[in-house]
Amino acid sequence: MSNLELAPSVMRFYGETVNEDDRLRSSADGRMELARTQELLRRFLPPAPARVLDVGGGTGIHAEWLAKDGYDVALVDPVPRHVEAASAVCPAAVGDARALAEPDDSFDVVQLLGPLYHLPDPADRQRALAEASRVAKPGGLVAAAAINRYASLFEHVTYAHLHTERIHASVSKILETAVYDGVRGFTLSYFHRAEELVAELAASGLTDVQVFGIEGPAWSLVKAAEQQPGEGPTDELIASALEAARMAEPYPELLAASSHLLAVGRAPAATDYRDR
To answer: Which residue(s) pair with 190 in the sheet?
Structure first.
């Protein structure tokens, strides 16, 4: 276990305030995120029963479907209550993405579907990606998710309050600095541009890096429908928004409209991580 610590606001947010499973299982845009993450990862995953390390895996929401697909999954997360819940799904341990306890070249797949969200210091993000590269087998898959730089702009329109002075100022600061300070609502967070995420994976030694918009350009229409009075978004609207995400993939300019980004790459062939 690392002696590194996350920001106290991040630990409080996930340890006491929210249940991330609820967002991914219950909200319309969360369900889109979960479905598309599965869809995208399944394109690149090696055949089961490959070994998968789910870094920052929360309560095991992704580990659960991976295990059902036949993968040998282990999970690491810094939040003790997450680890306790995830232990019902797969072997789970408290740990930090920036200093993994796992040995070199030990997993076929390493996924970070959350750690980069809350590491505003670029040195911390590089350390987490370098650790993922280190514990992945040569040529193994490394997948990293990020919050899109412009997600808050679209999201706060769905809540119909972007025009208010306080929210306008808060979102403007995120657009300018890429960081949210976690003063209220959400917690300390970093917001990536797609090209920046690709560059960070490449700088850690990963090769063949590709980036995808997870929810695609129509997610905010679904979220807006959910916020309005009535029954919420129809299954047809959600299906159309998911299809828009797939159709948008060949067009990099549409990455900016997605809420989250997913980058995938391959660990280098060198077995000595110091050469990576």
So the answer is: 179
Q: Which two tokens stand for residue 142?
A: 């490394």
DSSP per-residue letters across 68-97: HTT-EEEEEES-HHHHHHHTTTS-EEE-BT
pTM: 0.94
CB atoms near residue 233 (< 10 Å): 22
In residues, how long is the chain? 276
The DSSP secondary-structure symbol of 186 reads S
Task: Give the residue carrying structure tokens 């514990």.
Answer: 135
Question: Smallest Cα–Cα separation from 150: which of 238, 219, 56, 241?
Answer: 219
For 95, phi and psi rounded to 5 degrees? -170, 175
Cα–Cα distance, 144 to 196 (Å, whole number): 12
Residues 6+ apart with CB under 8 A from 187: 7, 9, 10, 12, 13, 14, 118, 180
> pLDDT tens, position by position, for the chain (276 residues)?
344 778 888 998 898 888 878 888 889 999 999 999 999 999 999 999 999 999 999 999 999 999 999 999 999 999 999 999 999 999 999 999 999 999 999 999 999 999 999 999 999 999 999 999 999 999 999 999 999 999 999 999 999 999 999 999 999 999 999 999 988 889 999 999 999 999 999 999 999 999 999 999 999 999 999 998 888 899 999 999 999 999 999 999 999 999 999 999 999 986 544 454
The half-sphere exposure of 131 on its side-chain side, counting CA atoms within 13 A, is 24
Distances (CA, A) of 125 to 153, 224, 238: 23, 32, 33
Pairwise CA distance, residues 74 & 94, whole Å? 11
